[in-house]
Amino acid sequence: MRLILARHGQSESNVNPDYQGLNAPLTKLGEQQAHLLGQWLRDHEPTIDQILCSPLKRAFDTANIVNEYLKLPIAINDDLEEMREFVLASLPQRQHPLKPDTEYITPEASPYYGIYREQVQRALDFLTQELDRVKPILVVSHGGTMATLLRLIMGRHDLRLNTNNTAIIDVAWSEGRWHIGALNMTRHLPDEFIT
Question: Is residue 155 domain-resident?
């Protein structure tokens, strides 16, 4: 089973700190990024046969633009939605970089992250229903959701993972283990489009 996780294109909330609300639209650059992602996926990942996306406008619009090139059914999964508040900065810090604190992120340390982690776990449970699936699934979501999916896969909630707009994280389950094939991959974007 293989999951190609793609972050949405640049949104108004990415460039305008005064933007209010969770449902930010894509910027013109975000739309261009989504087109380039769609073209790259069409040319390099022709076996994708399903698209799942967050219901938030920036992810949904990115998925629809990408789908102009893939022509596949799109399914919305509410559990792929972004966290509603930034919580990682408020969590306790590790005491040593090579000695992970086993209780680094607990529901007591950040009740909201515990709720969000449960939400993303439901998404991961849904995505991993068919472990013997041959064709990859494209998942269009958000940086926080993608990072939390990876944290769940790795069992390490003390990692902060940054993802550029329309960047790809490629993970696969085979032979009894997870394989990370790409992390924050932006090959489809010219340098000036990387945000």
Answer: yes
